[in-house]
Design a protein that fits this description.
The complex is a heterodimer of chains A (about 700) and B (about 575). With about 700 residues, chain A is α+β, with helices and mostly antiparallel strands. Chain A has 6 domains: about 5-70 and about 215-255, Nucleotidyltransferase, domain 5 (2-Layer Sandwich), CATH 3.30.420; about 75-210, Rossmann fold (3-Layer(aba) Sandwich); about 260-335 and about 430-490, Nucleotidyltransferase, domain 5; about 340-425, no CATH class; about 495-605, Dna Ligase, domain 1; about 625-675, no CATH class. Helix content of chain A is about 30%, strand content about 25%. In chain A, the strands form 9 sheets. In chain A, strands 13, 14, 15, 20, 23, 24, 31, 34 and 35 form a 9-stranded mixed β-sheet that branches. A 6-stranded mixed β-sheet of chain A has the order 3-2-1-4-11-12, sandwiched between helices. A 4-stranded parallel β-sheet of chain A has the order 6-5-9-10, with helices on both faces. In chain A, strand 1 (about 5-10) and strand 2 form a beta hairpin. Chain A is globular, with a radius of gyration of 26 Å. The N and C termini of chain B lie far apart (about 65 Å). Chain B has 13 helices and 19 strands. In chain B, strand 6 and strand 7 form a beta hairpin. With about 575 residues, chain B is an alpha+beta fold. In chain B, strands 2-1-5-4-3-6-7 form a 7-stranded antiparallel β-sheet, sandwiched between helices. A 4-stranded mixed β-sheet of chain B has the order 8-9-10-11, covered by helices on one side. Classes of the chains: A alpha+beta (about 700), B alpha+beta (about 575). At the A-B interface, helix 3 and helix 12 of A face helix 1, helix 5, helix 6, helix 7 and helix 10 of B.
């Protein structure tokens, strides 16, 4: 019998989910910053007790965590040195030499992870063809090793120019250091992120090195503690690409754990998409401070090769640091239940990214918060029941919400509290809609025809309106939405993506070289998966990134196993033309095409998802009570039914306007929609026929 | 009629639409200047040609220029000859954005057969024929192909005669035509999204939302200006120029509802292509003032209107046809520092000290060596790079190291540059001691060293200033480091113009630092110690300029040697 435990350490809560014989049990405990494993142990015991099991019964633990991200944001890493090519000491500090905010005269750029005195250089040079122009002198490396030892460094990142083509010098440094300083943690850029563009590659390698000792120590302690508590089963880690890897691989490449929590959320949504057989899904996860939006095609979340962590300036693009690793492609914006509203100089309502957090919280919590948050607007608009928030444990104060909305929004704009609340809700929904639209356009997608899967505490309150704005006609709100990421961990396959930058023009296509590149990457990726699942079937997905020679942006082109095994330039050209046309309207005739990056993702087969028997609208569930709910389409309050989610049994149907209440949140059914309870507990909102 | 809440949503939406329009251009463009460096812009206009929203991109230089451009298109094309499916084009330096290398395209947006607005976008392309990108031309006729305002497409039909003329006149025809199509696509993306918005809100035209945006923007901008103390002050700055120094002069006058920047007294037009059309001068003057006075008010017709610019014709900030203008960015990038010299007198403790100003760009033209037999793999190649010196110290924070200001473009990765041609970048790192000393320190410039792969020689087209006129400090701050350029074999080099570099030689460059703000004696000793530990300043400067004693210096250096502060 398989008893699997999913554990997600978040900023506030650690979520623990246990799946036993098809049933899910979950608990939320407060995250214990000093020793995060304490919360896991606590949660494990609690959830085992719920399920009538003991830790010794567990067969597998899947863990995802924000610890790696937080260590980068809070700069709590090891004493780390960067060893780089002479003449290029400042790559991670000079960034792109641009300002991410054009109009702020007092702009401050984020400090690099390592100050200048921790960036050391060696005389060496490889050119853009991978040829060694200046050989690295081993004696210089020996001398540097002495200095590293004397200075007490715990970790070292090695990044030389063009090492993605020829790693010989980086490996020489590794070998010397392994011999001289066996206790030192070493990360090579040619291993961590073998891709062209030195700033992204060096920064990713430095980030890996910076958190490596911390994460290795944490993972070691976690394994020991779990074993001591009786859970001696295998432990695996969720990575940012949406799969799981061994604890050893995680300790070697901890930078791949960054954003593993949100990745779990996307996998959760993808799994539900599979259950319903839906090919085009927008996953919408809205919590207290941010909202995350991800596109899921054919039940697989879209992936990307680079993203930014630790944005320092209103979530603004460019204000964080780039990490180039395989990652689920998400947009995150500062829009959550706690996001605060104000009016700017243009008399425009602005919402977020500043958030009230849980202390003092929005004004309605009555804990001293004076400024209106999104939750205040939701309360005034009738979306929340003041007496039954968080299962009645937190009484809400509508009068304080109204006062805060009037004082900070209404008075300036000559609006009453209700109109101000409407404005705040519309602005936050519009912000999210804009982010989703831009993300869709960047991926060549049109959101009409998409289904939204909404989870996270605040999402069900806003999903209906967001869907209206995006022209989406179906929204699924799954059960367990508050612990979606941890559930997602249990649905993730073993996977590892290996990538490499090698430039090749189709005019100079070399089929043997292509086979060799793909073979090497396939072996590397498969090797990582085999360490986790020695006997499982391993599938490989091949992607090549292509562009017209002369362009700067590559587009991903997916190859079938046959196309990868028998590479042919005509096939590559045809695939590129088709994808380029889909994204940008038309191909550009007569230009040569080149491949820049090669990627092979090895994965165990996705868990087979049983399609559910979807319910048609059935028995109308009469409201237990009624309340006034604001309808943003007509701009007025309407009389809405209130139905507890517990009464929405299979097939139960409620027409909007309605509020479906549960302990964690409330699902708002807009006037134009109908809610049907599905067999798996999902609430299925669809646009109902007019009349 | 839509409610105020709906208008708020629509304004947000229009800003999102132009950002999307710009993003589509970045992703499909071929020129490195657009796709890597972000030298482009995009905007939406009402039926009157008034700009309602503009994407925030890398180029303040396009701000006003774009705002004015659509009016020229309406005048030249004529409303009665505008049809659905039309796309218009120009690279007129005076009716577009300042030089032939910027292509501006405008698309009318029709709804139910009625013209409701326009989309426009601009991109800097790498080649437009002529002498190539550089200052060497004597008139605009030598600078490349001129495309007057005309139809690129009529009712969806592309003018193939025009595309053949373009192809026949430029060095990289595929790249340029690819970019022209990318520009047309980007307007199309905007148009589709605008149509979606008008459907959603059931709008027949943009009159209501235009009034809402423009009224709010005008009121907010004028409120900001009214809050300033009225007055007038003059500022000036002298920079290297091409062969003789240039002095930029401005008189800034703050009135209750407008700010006038009068450039009377500025040096006359230069014989070479560093002259600046007024539209580009206006863009940078306006950008400088908006940063200081109303940074968060988005650019549109109304928020730009209160910033008025005056200049005499035939001065270097108001060059008229047929003056050569290819490198108009050099003068344009110095306009903000000139404006700040005056503004500092009217609005103390707001503006930075002078910085590197113009970008430190160079283009290398590589070819097989001619002094001896070249290896078989040697080839010809053009490689353009954008680089930045240090920005000026701000009243409360240090200047930014090697970061562009006022331009907002990005540099290209060294690995990408070396993949673009047989060029070798041997060094690209911060330049210690180049940040002018002060209570707050100027940003550091950078060192670069460029050569060619074995078997090649090259010409370098230098576009550097501040060789003889380093950035000046404010209120007791010291100047930033000056630009230097030299050849590794000892041959002297100039800051501007095309210069030959033989096989085996390298060009050694040091780009300028920003100037300091306030007396160096007022600098926080902890900041000096940090700068010393990081090597931003040398031990000599820490001792002589900031008065740190030798024992402390040794102690800091020992800790820095071990990686600590």
């Amino acid at each position: 019998m398989a008893y699997r435990l999913g554990v997600d350490i978040g900023g506030t809560f650690t979520d623990v989910v246990l799946e036993a014989e098809g049933a899910l049990h979950s608990v939320k405990v407060l995250t214990t910053y000093a020793a995060p494993e304490d919360a896991i142990i606590d949660g494990m015991h609690k959830v085992c007790a719920k399920a009538g099991l003991v830790p010794g019964d567990l067969t597998q633990i899947i863990h995802g965590t924000t610890l790696a991200t937080n260590a980068l944001i809070e700069r709590r890493g090891a004493k780390t040195a960067l060893i780089t090519t002479k003449g290029f000491r400042d790559v991670i500090e000079m960034r792109t030499e641009s300002r991410f905010e054009q109009y702020d005269l007092n702009l401050v750029l984020p400090e690099p992870l390592l100050p200048r005195q921790r960036r050391l250089v060696l005389q060496e040079r490889v050119d853009a063809r991978g040829e060694v122009l200046i050989p690295l002198d081993e004696a210089e490396v020996e001398a540097l090793a002495g200095k590293l030892e004397a200075s007490g460094y715990d970790s070292v990142a090695v990044g030389f120019l063009h090492s993605y083509l020829n790693p010989v010098h980086e490996r020489m440094v590794r070998d010397v250091l392994a011999r001289r300083l066996p206790g030192l943690s070493v990360s090579l850029s040619s291993d961590v992120s073998p891709q062209m563009r030195e700033y992204e590659r060096f920064n990713t390698t430095v980030a890996n090195a910076y958190i490596k000792p911390l994460m290795a120590s944490y993972l070691g302690r976690l394994r020991e503690r779990l074993a001591a508590e009786g859970a001696g089963c295998d432990i695996f880690l969720m990575h940012s690409g949406g799969g799981i890897i061994s604890i050893e691989s995680a300790a070697e490449f901890p930078v791949r754990l960054v954003e593993s929590g949100p990745a779990g959320g996307a996998v959760f949504a993808a799994h539900i998409a599979g259950r319903y057989g839906i090919d085009r899904v927008l996953s919408f996860d809205m919590g207290g401070t941010t909202a995350k939006i991800c596109l899921i095609r054919d039940q697989s979340p879209k992936t990307s090769r680079v993203f930014e962590v630790a944005r320092s300036y209103r979530f603004k693009k460019g204000s964080g640091m780039p990490i180039s690793i395989p990652v689920i492609d998400m947009v995150e914006i500062g829009a959550g239940g706690g996001s605060l509203a104000h009016v700017d100089a243009l008399r425009q309502i602005r919402v977020g990214p500043e958030s009230a957090g849980s202390e003092p919280g929005p004004a309605c919590y009555g804990r001293g918060g004076e400024r209106p948050g999104v939750t205040d607007a939701d309360l005034v608009l009738g979306k929340l029941d003041p007496d039954n928030f968080a299962g009645g444990t937190i009484p809400l104060h509508p009068d304080r919400s109204e006062a805060a909305l009037s004082a900070h929004v209404g008075e300036t704009l000559g609006m009453d509290a209700t109109t101000a609340a409407f404005g705040v809700a519309e602005v936050v929904d519009e912000n999210m809609a804009n982010a989703a639209r831009v993300h869709a356009v960047e991926n060549g997608e049109d959101l009409a025809g998409y289904t939204m899967i909404a989870f996270g505490g605040a999402a069900p309150l806003h999903a209906g309106r967001l869907a209206q704005k995006l022209g989406i006609s179906r929204v699924l709100v799954p059960p367990g939405a508050g612990v979606g990421s941890a559930i997602g961990f249990l649905r993730a396959p073993f996977s590892f993506e290996a990538t490499r930058s090698v430039y090749m023009r189709l005019a100079e296509f070399d089929a043997d070289a292509v086979r060799e590149i793909l073979q090497t990457l396939g072996d590397e990726a498969t090797g990582f998966v085999r360490t986790c699942a020695p006997d499982a079937t391993v599938e490989t997905d091949v992607k090549v990134y292509m562009r017209y020679t002369g362009q700067g942006w590559e587009i991903p082109v997916t190859l079938t196993p046959e196309q990868a095994a028998n590479p042919d330039s005509n096939t590559f050209q045809a695939l590129f033309d088709a994808d380029y046309t889909r994204l940008f309207g038309r191909p550009v005739a007569g230009l040569d095409v080149e491949i820049t990056v090669w990627a092979v993702n090895a994965t165990t087969p996705k868990e087979a998802v049983a399609a559910i028997d979807q319910e048609e609208p059935g028995v109308a569930r009469n409201a237990t009570e009624r309340r006034a709910l604001f309808d943003p389409v007509s701009g007025a309050f309407v009389d809405a039914g209130v139905v507890p989610r517990g009464e929405m049994v299979r097939g139960a149907t409620t027409d909007g306007p309605a509020a479906i209440t549960e302990d964690e949140t409330t699902i708002i059914v807009p006037v134009s929609m109908r809610a049907v309870a599905q067999p798996d507990g999902c609430i299925d909102l669809t646009v109902r026929e007019a009349g | 009629m839509p409610s105020d809440v709906q208008y708020q949503v629509m304004w947000n939406r229009l800003i999102s639409i132009v950002e999307e329009q710009a993003q589509a251009l970045v992703r499909t463009a071929f020129s490195t200047s657009v796709r890597e460096a972000g030298d482009l812009s995009a905007g939406v206009y009402d039926a009157e040609g008034r700009m309602l929203a503009q994407a925030v991109t890398g180029t303040p230089g396009h701000v006003n220029a774009m705002a004015d451009a659509v009016a020229h298109f309406i005048r030249r094309i004529g409303r009665q000859t505008m049809f659905e499916g039309d796309v218009y084009i120009t690279n007129d330096p005076w009716e577009g954005t300042g030089h032939l290398h910027d292509i501006t395209m405008v698309t009318p947006s029709f709804r139910n057969g009625v013209l409701v607005g326009f989309f426009a976008c601009t991109a800097h392309i790498v080649d437009i024929g002529g002498r190539g990108f550089g200052a060497d031309a004597n008139s605009v006729y030598e600078e490349g192909l001129y495309i007057p305002i005309m139809k690129f497409a009529e009712r969806g039909e592309v003018d193939e005669t025009l595309t053949r003329i373009i192809r026949g006149n430029v060095r990289e025809p595929d790249q340029l035509i690819g970019d022209v199509y990318a520009l047309a696509t980007c307007n199309e993306v905007g148009h589709r999204r605008l149509t979606g918005m008008m459907d959603e809100f059931d709008l027949a035209d943009l009159t209501g939302i235009a009034a809402f945006i423009l009224d709010n923007s005008r009121r907010a901008t004028i409120e900001r200006i009214a809050a300033l103390t009225p007055g007038s002050a003059a500022g000036e700055m002298t920079v290297d120029g091409f062969s003789a120094p240039i002095t930029l002069r401005v008189r800034l006058t703050i009135e209750a509802d407008r700010i006038i920047s009068d450039f009377t007294g500025t040096t006359g037009v230069d014989k070479k292509g560093i002259n600046c059309p007024l539209v580009y001068t206006k863009a940078y003057a306006c950008y400088a003032l908006k940063c200081a006075i109303a940074p968060e008010i988005p650019n549109n017709h109304a928020s730009l209107a209160p910033f008025e610019i005056v200049a005499e014709e035939n001065t270097i900030v108001h060059a008229v046809h047929p003056a050569p203008v290819a490198l108009r960015h050099i003068v344009g990038h110095f306009v903000p520092d000139t404006v700040y010299a005056a503004l500092d007198l009217l609005l103390p403790d707001t503006v930075p000290a002078e910085g590197a100003g113009c970008l430190c760009n160079f283009q290398v033209s590589l070819r097989p060596r001619t002094d001896a037999p070249a290896p078989a793999h040697a080839r010809r190649s053009e490689v353009l790079t954008f680089n930045s010196g240090g920005s000026g110290a701000r009243p409360t924070v240090d200047g930014l190291n090697a970061t562009a200001f006022p331009s907002g473009v990005m540099t290209m990765p060294v690995e990408a540059t070396e993949n673009a041609g047989p060029v070798m970048i041997w060094r690209k790192e911060l330049r210690p001691d180049s940040g002018g000393a002060g209570t707050t320190r100027g940003g550091l410039g950078q060192y670069m060293e460029v050569g060619a792969q074995e078997g090649h020689e090259f010409d370098i087209q230098a576009m550097f200033d501040r060789v003889h006129h380093p950035a000046r400090g404010r209120r007791g701050g010291a100047p930033g480091g000056a630009t230097t350029i030299a050849r590794s074999d000892g041959e002297a080099m100039r800051g501007k113009g095309k210069q030959f570099v033989p096989h085996g030689a390298r060009v050694l460059m040091a780009f300028p630092g920003g100037a300091g703000h306030g007396d160096p004696s007022g600098r926080d000793p902890a900041a000096v110690r940090r700068d010393l530990a990081r090597g931003y300043v040398s031990a000599e400067v820490a001792a002589s300029t900031y008065g740190i004693d030798p024992a402390t210096i040794s102690e800091i250096q020992a800790r820095a040697e071990a990686g600590d502060e």
